[in-house]
Amino acid sequence: LPQARAGIISTVEVLKVMEAFVNEPNYTVWSDLSCNLGILATLLSHTDFYEDIQGFIRDVFSPIGERLGWDPKPGEGHLDALLRGLVLGKLGKAGHKATLEEARRRFKEHVEGKHILSADLRSPVYVTVLKHGDSSTLDTMLKLHKQADMQEEKNRIERVLGAISQPELIQKVLTFALSEEVRPQDTVSVIGGVAGGSKQGRKAAWKFVRDNWEELYNRYQGGFLISRLIKV
């Protein structure tokens, strides 16, 4: 993909190569594909091809998603669990119908305490329901954040809040980022999640950072977090 971005080879050729990995079982390969497709989707988000790339993601990731399923298989290793989370999150975010339906079902059971999600499935489920969710989905997620006993779970939720799509809800997430509910060192993760979540999120996060620059700069005093914020 770096060669495609530099104009050395066509993006179409890169996508053809990606299609050839459809039966690949290796986590590292899928992680790389996921990252590169994410970059491509970002580059295409201002064009008419954005929905096409989402369809391509659904087509490439659905066979491995069906093979892995939602539940761990006997004897599978740690990388299989990581791969399942990666693939289901990618499919859910891209609007794969069966993945979205199952994510919503499992999220409902999780919230109701009927069947608590395993740690490796929480991020993909949270991302999926938020991406295709509404104000009540966001409110439920913020409630889960408030109720979470472990900082690890709070951070997990903070990283995915930016998946929400509606402009007014994006603003709510950005306001939450600077609230007392979020540790100062974790504010950047929330803003970064918004910036990486959607075209609307990028614009809103950039404006939010400019509007609140003095507070953010004073908070981090020119340390590594301010440079990380600028990078995202």
Automatic annotation (TrEMBL):
<dbReference type="GO" id="GO:0005737">
    <property type="term" value="C:cytoplasm"/>
</dbReference>
<dbReference type="Pfam" id="PF11838">
    <property type="entry name" value="ERAP1_C"/>
</dbReference>
<keyword id="KW-0378">Hydrolase</keyword>
<dbReference type="InterPro" id="IPR024571">
    <property type="entry name" value="ERAP1-like_C_dom"/>
</dbReference>
<dbReference type="GO" id="GO:0008270">
    <property type="term" value="F:zinc ion binding"/>
</dbReference>
<dbReference type="GO" id="GO:0005615">
    <property type="term" value="C:extracellular space"/>
</dbReference>
<dbReference type="GO" id="GO:0043171">
    <property type="term" value="P:peptide catabolic process"/>
</dbReference>
<keyword id="KW-0031">Aminopeptidase</keyword>
<dbReference type="GO" id="GO:0070006">
    <property type="term" value="F:metalloaminopeptidase activity"/>
</dbReference>
<comment type="similarity">
    <text>Belongs to the peptidase M1 family.</text>
</comment>
<dbReference type="GO" id="GO:0042277">
    <property type="term" value="F:peptide binding"/>
</dbReference>
<dbReference type="GO" id="GO:0016020">
    <property type="term" value="C:membrane"/>
</dbReference>
<feature type="domain" description="ERAP1-like C-terminal">
    <location>
        <begin position="4"/>
        <end position="231"/>
    </location>
</feature>
<dbReference type="InterPro" id="IPR050344">
    <property type="entry name" value="Peptidase_M1_aminopeptidases"/>
</dbReference>
<keyword id="KW-0645">Protease</keyword>
<protein>
    <submittedName>
        <fullName>PSA aminopeptidase</fullName>
    </submittedName>
</protein>
<dbReference type="GO" id="GO:0006508">
    <property type="term" value="P:proteolysis"/>
</dbReference>
